Amino acid sequence: MPHSPRHCVLIGAPVDSGQRRAGCLMGPAAYRVAGIEKALRDLGHSVTDHGDLAAALPVETPTCTNPAVHHLGETLGWTASLARAGQAAMAEGMPIFLGGDHSLSLGSVAGVAAHAAAVGRPLFVLWLDAHSDFHTPETTESGNLHGTPIAYIAGRPFAPFPPFPAPVPPQNICLFGIRSVDHAEHAALLAHEIAINDMRVIDEQGITAPLRAFLERVEAANGLLHVSLDVDFLDPAIAPAVGTTVPGGATFREAHLVMEMLHDSGLVSSLDLVELNPFLDDRGRTAHLMVDLLASLMGRKVFDRPTRSFRGQQ
Fold this sequence. Notes:
Blueprint: E1 7-13, H1 27-33, H2 36-42, E2 46-52, H3 72-92, E3 94-99, H4 105-119, E4 123-128, H5 149-153, E5 173-178, H6 183-190, E6 195-198, H7 199-205, H8 208-220, E7 224-230, H9 252-265, E8 268-274, H10 285-297
Parallel strand pairs: 1-2, 1-3, 3-8, 4-5, 4-7, 5-6, 7-8
Helix pairs in contact: 3-4, 8-9, 9-10
């Protein structure tokens, strides 16, 4: 039985402050040119596009004891704007954040978490990424804050950012497709109960088993599920438009299978599309692939057939 149509809320987040390679600020425009709204409407969903946000201006000049951190004030401003927009959009429908580098998730997930806390439901986070993004502003050596959102979401010390509104228990976080973790992140992750499904796990168990196990936990808890899809989750051979390419990522079919399973679960309540850098793309190839993956998540199928459901559908 097909799922009911959703009301999708597009929020452009032209965030470029979380890393040093310019171009991610063009991501929201590229998704629109690639036909993201039409793809959703063709599947029967309604769409409101709120356009692109602007970063809020910090009340005072922020400081950080780590001199490597750059664009701190700008990233704090984006976090505040996205948190407000995300919480409001959750009450309106299903927010889809169009990035923008992955530091946007500092704000998008904060807004979603505030909504989850307000309605009394647990939040789960599925992180589709080559990287674990578990640094803090104090531990990052690169100073790139796009490598920190999971630490913020999980409630690690994160000055000078405001406290995360409702930290997500580590056991409610699933890192999926990971294949680049540095020593400091590795040590920190060992002290938490975050589910880490790196590419070796996926090679040994396949895509479906670890993802299905996580989705069953979300359903059992009646949780909300935020999915954060980084372009570098995909193998760079099929998705070149990202500044942090790591070989050995998800194939075309693996990525679509993940999206189809997410659709079948009926659990996804919000979504980030991040790290698209159109300046590095080949005639819009990566932007179109990301839109196609979103379409699979929202119900597009090559052939409709009965599938195993997480909500008892036959």
